[in-house]
Amino acid sequence: MSATVIDGKAFAAKVRGQVATHVTALKQDHGITPGLAVVLVGEDPASQVYVRSKGKMTVEVGMKSVEHKLDADTSEADLLALIQKLNDDAEIHGILVQLPLPDHLDEDLVINSIDPAKDVDGFHISNVGLLGTGQDSMVPCTPLGCLMMLRDHHGSLSGMDAVVIGRSNIVGKPMAQLLLGDSCTVTIAHSRTKDLAEVVRRADIVVAAVGRPQMVPGDWIKPGATVIDVGINRIDKPEGGTRLVGDVDYESCAAVAGAITPVPGGVGPMTIACLLANTVTACCRANGLPAPEGLTA
Ligand code: NDP
Fold first, then answer.
1. DSSP H helical ranges for the chain
2. Quick one: 141-269 is in which CATH superfamily?
3. For the chain, what are the domain ranges?
4. Which residue CA neighbors atom 35 of ligand 1 most closely?
């Protein structure tokens, strides 16, 4: 068997197109332009790249993009004051503080100072609680992107066995909550899981969010299962240079799976698309309008 490749790049372009359509309608029908503010503290090169591409795509879908770049030694008080200003700004519907923050800043405190209604990363403790209790919330972008791809591929996920490998607050746990919300039977595996291979072999859906290059081999995969690879790992190429790989061994898994996301070009592009989708959702909710269908959990 050779798996269907789930093209996250194409799907993300489609989602961005839907976002752009909603943005146009918000402008024309209500005179509202959704606005996203991104706050970057320090000069981490990877974070700078992410922030640049988030800003570019925000503008491309017709939204207002605001970037705040702060020095690495910015005090907590100054950062919290900026967030408060953005919380109070009616033209800003989404606020994202790029992580990781420099060590002297308390990440939990900073994230929880964002107005939960503007928390487009979905990391605020209120949104975590709302998601856990099945209520409308802002949903973390990466798991939301995985869910959208799974729904697109399968239609209903009801009754499927899903295994999420990884229990981080930004991917593993919210992913498991979303799959549970779609009536999957969910197992969360982690570094202490006994006989991970056997656990994964039961799954109709495998979501790998570990951060270990090519850790999941094809013989862990149930024939026909859907494999969503969240991992982004850079490894050395034998001929020199580096390349990106996921947390699953793509070749051997694709030979057994029914469908699989590649790395790059799978989950990665969906993350920014879902950030834009969350910003439109936040804007609609702030203005008493229904959240756009198909762009929420
Ligand atoms: P974390 O490091 O926060 O979490 C990793 C999880 O994997 C932990 O729960 C850990 O278990 C578990 N784990 C580690 N080793 C093993 C093992 N041998 N067997 C089973 N489980 C194991 O990572 P993130 O969730 O933040 O990210 C995971 C991956 O996804 C990374 O490669 C990251 O780069 C990528 N990522 C990709 C995004 C995208 O847009 N595509 C966005 C975010 C992340 P324990 O809790 O027991 O330590």
1. 8-30, 45-60, 76-88, 107-111, 125-132, 141-154, 172-181, 196-201, 250-254, 267-286
2. NAD(P)-binding Rossmann-like Domain (3.40.50.720)
3. 30-115, 141-269
4. 231
Give backbone dihedrals phi and psi of 245, rounded to 5 degrees, phi first.
Answer: -135, 160
Contact of 228 with 149, CB cutoff 8 Å = yes
Q: How far is the CA of 171 from the centre of ligand 1 (A)?
A: 8
- Which ligand 1 atom minimizes the distance to the CA of 267? 41
Give the single-character DSSP code of 220.
G
Identical fold for domains 30-115 and 141-269, yes or no, is yes
Residue 165 Cβ inside 6 Å of ligand 1? The answer reads yes
Report the top-level CATH class of 30-115. alpha beta
- The per-residue pLDDT of the chain, averaged, comes to 97
* pLDDT tens figures, 154-209: 999 999 999 999 999 999 999 999 999 999 999 999 999 999 999 999 999 999 99
Q: Which mutation among 169, 198, 206, 210 tests ligand 1's pocket best, with the greatest number of atoms within 8 A of CB?
A: 210
Give 65-91 pLDDT, tens digit per residue: 999 999 999 999 999 999 999 999 999
Which atom of ligand 1 lies closest to the CA of 246?
Answer: 32
Ligand 1 center to residue 291 CA distance, Å?
A: 30
pTM: 0.97
